[in-house]
User: What shape does this take?
Amino acid sequence: MNSSANDFLHNNVRVLKSRVSKTAYQAVFIAMVAIIIATLAACYLSRGEISIDGIIHVQSTNYALWILDAVPFVFGIWGQYSSTVIAYEASAMVYDQTRELREKADVLEQEARHSATHDALTDLPNKALFYDRVSQSISAANRSEQPVSVLLIEIANYSDVNDTLGRNSSDSLLKQVAVRLQSAFTSPASIARIEGNIFSLLLSGKESRQMATHTARSIHNILEPIFFIDKVKLSAHANIGIVHFPEHGEEADTLVQRAGVALYMAQNSNQGYAVYDSSFDASSPRRLTLLSEVSQALDRNEMELYFQPKVNVRDGSVYGAEALVRWNHPRHGLLPPDEFIPMIERTRTIQTLSLWVLKQCFTQISEWRKQGLDLKLAINLSAKDLHNPELPDLIAGLRGSTGVNPSWIILEITESSIMTDPEMALEVVQRIHQMGFQFSIDDYGTGYSSLAYLKKMPLTELKIDRSFVTDILEDENDRVIVNATINLAQNLGLQVTAEGVETPEVMALLNQYGCDIAQGYLISKPLNLDDFHQWLESYKP
Ligand code: C2E
Ligand code: CA
Ligand code: CA
Assistant: This one.
């Protein structure tokens, strides 16, 4: 026991003992009173009066009084003794419990500190701790003039594993990757997991710059052997972005952000890694920052739906509209979907955007129908949506909350989105179709889809891509393709929409070929909601 514990114990003993002693003194006092009363009573009984003589007499001759006289001493000694013992025992008990509580508090504190700085899944340092270590290494490097390198390692096929095998498997993959990295790179290299599928490695010391590219290659080697996850064999494909301090940045934030730019360049390199170069900035940061801004853009109401009218070719009457998303970006102005959709289609953010688009569209069409507008709304789905097994339930939920009749909606899918995983896509499409929703095959003619697969899809409409339609008058080939496609579709019982109709002549030819619906600048460009309403009011077939 250390000296502070000793002090603690002795103090407690003193306090407790003084309390227990007080009780012992009371007992002694009661015993004394009892002796006096007994002596007086004995004196009166033997002499018939109370006198000093009589008291001395009974005190010296009455054995019972002798015994009684001894009681205060016994109480006194016993009380002192037992009060000491009890005080020691009680204090030791309190001390033990206090120590136990202190130890428990220490453990909890340590655990809290650990979980604030470590990732729960892999137990590796988290983003906060990693930034901390990078900053520390930078300070140390400033003193010793030794370089520091940061590598960001992205497990590129993580979301595919997640989409096809589920969260448990993708989590297991990350755990196994973490174990391999950790066992390969021990201190002073520092491994962390800083985001879903992104690990990071910090190298410091004289050799770190030369080591970085070598390390990137080793990481590829380390991750090359197959992973076994629930008896399924999986491989992990990594992209690695590399930055060096001080030439690529002097602060942790800049370095990690630029490592992200290098990572982005690595995705398109053959080696699977790239060292940051300032020339990358021209092409990538805008796209990279856009990517990180999409989720906030939805919260901030920066996304807006535009509507492009679709009309019946035969009589020019309004058939409906296609919903096309736009981004009112605070710095870049109105961004067309081609500037951000292809980029976010590679990430799970597309699902957030698609859900937003679906919600807006369901609300809008039910609004129009309430106003008596007999429109049909076309909504674009992306490939990732067709690989999202939750999509049918999301749509079922939206239908329930908005009261939309599925026949008011037509969902546009592309050939390429079906072909990446036909089985999965077919299942998702069929479940949605069973609720009564219709499907359209978009950009028809640009993909390589087999008709066999298209026949399996429950399609209502085929949309001929505008690249064939716009030049139909000048290009003989396009004319043949469009004519043949219209015939083919009609034989399969599909309605045909031609996109990109820009002139009355094209419209006339399409009418001649028997095309059902037209969409294009001739009729109208995509319009925001107010303009679309005005167009509806002023439009005359
Ligand atoms: P898309 O589905 O093929 O949409 C038609 C595109 O053609 C639209 O471009 C439209 O403005 C344009 N267009 C229509 N008529 C004409 C015409 O006569 N001439 C010419 N030159 N172009 C015409 P936009 O709005 O820029 O959309 C581009 C693509 O972005 C869309 O192609 C679609 O693939 C995607 N997209 C748009 N909104 C969404 C969305 O909400 N979700 C998803 N997943 N994709 C979307
Ligand atoms: Ca479309
Ligand atoms: Ca299209």
The chain has a mean pLDDT of 87. Residues 298 and 353 are 8 Å apart (CA to CA).
